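Tip: read the tokens left to right.
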């Protein structure tokens, strides 16, 4: 095996997919499985499809492009770029939108490609990332309902992201009500009322989702078995589907404080050190070019991760009882952000088991 590596247990992942799909289906909620954290790896996406999700969703059209052979609807999560309008209509069936000018370009592209492109309008209910403020929604819909090649199929909200706003029953009820109002005002049928991401799983676990809300877009909840509002574990899911592995290339007893006048480190910052005497220090052949450092923890909990530069990671092995040697592999638990960074690095080997 090559290192550094991101190991992925496909059996556990499949089980997580089935558990979350079942949890949602019981409440008549469809699942848009979000694939952005692993850069749209088709082998992982296939596990989602086999596990019974209703849509594959990603922020990048480049990732959705890889799913051309999957017989499932694809959703573009990030508000489309006008410059990509043709690709958006070609490779996604539905896109999330918040700009009239962009939807007009999607309409033109759809006419040229002789397709009907479906849109979900995002409504900003306080998180202050994407979306139209509720007071502007009717004006907005008026401008897009008559566009050819475009079908308005739903509305959605995103929370827990930029502003970290926690979804509540009343926020989601507000979304459902906005949908009902639009249906009567414009005499249309909205198939999708999409109530957020893995943060909304918390309300599902509490059985506190308003009727009428019928879709969630879930990434982290499936991959790590957690809801993200409070980091509660989801019952009957695995939290260790992903493991990051790196090889020890140097192992020596050295002081804990650098010797000499301390200036700036490799990243232009002045580091501060606590004197812990002589420690057993290991260097791993990986660095922040491979994985985001703050979000990984050694599986051997007596090992401490003390720092990293672009391609070297330093660990303190003083307290561990295991006799590690050069060439051994250390394993780490990962977070959503570190799955993303490791998947993005071309140096990290993806291994399925
Ligand atoms: C990333 C993203 C999601 C999924 O978020 P998770 O926390 O991984 O569940 C849902 N919707 C949008 C718009 C996103 O960008």
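Filled-in amino acids:
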């Amino acid at each position: 095996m090559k290192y550094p590596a991101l190991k992925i247990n496909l059996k556990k992942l499949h089980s997580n997919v089935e558990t979350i799909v079942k949890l949602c289906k019981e409440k008549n909620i469809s699942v848009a499985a979000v694939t952005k954290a692993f850069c749209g790896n088709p082998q992982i996406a296939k596990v989602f499809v086999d596990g019974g999700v209703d849509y594959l969703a990603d922020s990048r059209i480049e990732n959705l492009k890889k799913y051309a052979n999957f017989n499932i609807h694809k959703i573009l999560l990030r508000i489309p770029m006008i410059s990509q309008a043709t690709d958006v209509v070609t490779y996604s069936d539905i896109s999330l939108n918040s700009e009239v000018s962009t939807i007009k370009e999607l309409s033109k592209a759809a006419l040229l490609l002789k397709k009907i492109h479906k849109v979900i309008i995002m409504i900003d209910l306080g998180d202050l990332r994407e979306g139209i403020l509720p007071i502007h929604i009717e004006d907005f819909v008026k401008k897009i309902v008559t566009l050819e090649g475009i079908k308005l199929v739903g509305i959605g909200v995103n929370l827990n992201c930029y502003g970290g706003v926690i979804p509540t029953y009343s926020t989601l009820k507000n979304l459902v009500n906005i949908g009902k109002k639009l249906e009567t005002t414009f005499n249309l049928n909205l198939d999708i009322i999409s109530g957020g991401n893995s943060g909304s799983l918390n309300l599902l676990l509490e059985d506190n989702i308003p009727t009428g809300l019928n879709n969630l877009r879930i990434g982290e909840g499936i991959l790590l078995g957690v809801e993200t509002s409070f980091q509660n574990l989801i019952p009957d899911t695995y939290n260790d589907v992903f493991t990051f592995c790196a090889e020890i290339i140097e192992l020596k007893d050295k002081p804990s404080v650098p010797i000499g006048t301390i200036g700036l480190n490799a990243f232009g910052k002045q580091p501060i050190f606590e004197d812990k005497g002589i420690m057993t220090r290991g260097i791993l052949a990986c660095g922040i070019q491979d994985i985001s450092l703050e979000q990984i923890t050694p599986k051997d909990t007596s090992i401490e991760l003390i720092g990293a530069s672009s391609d070297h990671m330093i660990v303190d092995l003083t307290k561990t009882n295991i006799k590690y040697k050069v060439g051994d592999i250390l394993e780490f638990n990962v977070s959503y952000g570190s799955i993303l960074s490791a998947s993005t690095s071309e140096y990290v080997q993806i291994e399925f088991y």
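The chain is about 25% helix and 25% strand. The pocket of pyridoxal-5'-phosphate is lined by residues 34, 36, 59, 77, 96, 158, 197-198, 217-221, 228 (CB under 6 Å).
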